[in-house]
Amino acid sequence: MSHRMKFGAFLAPFHKPGVNPTLALEQDLELVQWLDRCGYDEAWFGEHHSAGTEVSASPEIFMAFAAERTRHIRLGSGVISVSDHTHDVAHLGQL
Question: What is the pLDDT of residues 36-57, one digit of tens each?
Answer without folding.
Answer: 999 999 999 987 666 666 677 6
